[in-house]
Amino acid sequence: MLLPTGFAEAQTGEGEYLVVGPGTLPGAALVVHASAVGRFLIREVWISGSYRSSAEGSVRAIATVGGALRIMGARRTVLQLAESPWNLDAGLRLGPSILFRFEESRIDRNKRFTLLADPFVRAGYGRFSLELAVHSPSVRAGFWIPI
User: Fold this and answer.
1) Which residues of 91-104 are buried (b: 16+ CB within 10 A; e: fewer)?
2) 3-state SS assignment for residue 57
3) pLDDT digits (tens, 9 = 90+) for 39-96
4) CA-CA distance, 51 to 63, in Å (whole number)?
């Protein structure tokens, strides 16, 4: 597979990144987060807007802060291995969520705002990552842009 020059180095290095990508399952979403990447840890501020089409469609906005343990980064450091474009992160995000249903009942209106804890696992190669999480969107892709 041919990749552009610099593709594999982007996520492995320490620094600050803007991550943008789609999310799905259920519905569709746009996910944006800013990440400060270190050798062992990643600190994140995460924003997501999602749309769910169904008989009772909805729109959701989420803003969280959190962090992740860089499993491969810690392994490379402890075992003194060479750098690799592959990454594996496990983390947790905490923050508010607001949900608007298209046809809301009085009970739905009273339950719009929630606080959520969102554990996730993310695998990455170079500037691309794929993330699995508990809260929707449950499957998220990301393209890492150095800032």
Assistant:
1) bebebebebebeee
2) coil
3) 899 999 999 999 988 767 889 999 999 999 999 988 888 898 888 889 999 999 999 9
4) 15
User: Given a cut of 70, is residue 129 above it in pLDDT?
Assistant: yes
Contact 49, 27 (CB under 8 A): no
Cα–Cα distance for residue pair 117/64, rounded to 1 Å: 9
The C-alpha angle 78, 3, 74, rounded to 5 degrees, equals 10
3-state secondary structure of 75: helix
CA atoms in the 13 A half-sphere facing the CB of 3: 11
Tokens of 32: 């944006």
Pick from 130, 129, 132, 127: nearest CA to 144? 127
Q: Within 10 Å of residue 115's Cβ, how many Cβ atoms?
A: 9
Contacts 24+ apart (CB under 8 A), 75-81: 77/39, 77/40
DSSP-assigned beta bridge partners for residue 19: 33, 144
Q: Using CA atoms, how far apart are residues 1 and 39, in angstroms rounded to an integer?
A: 27
Query: CA 104 to CA 2: how far, in whole Å?
Result: 50
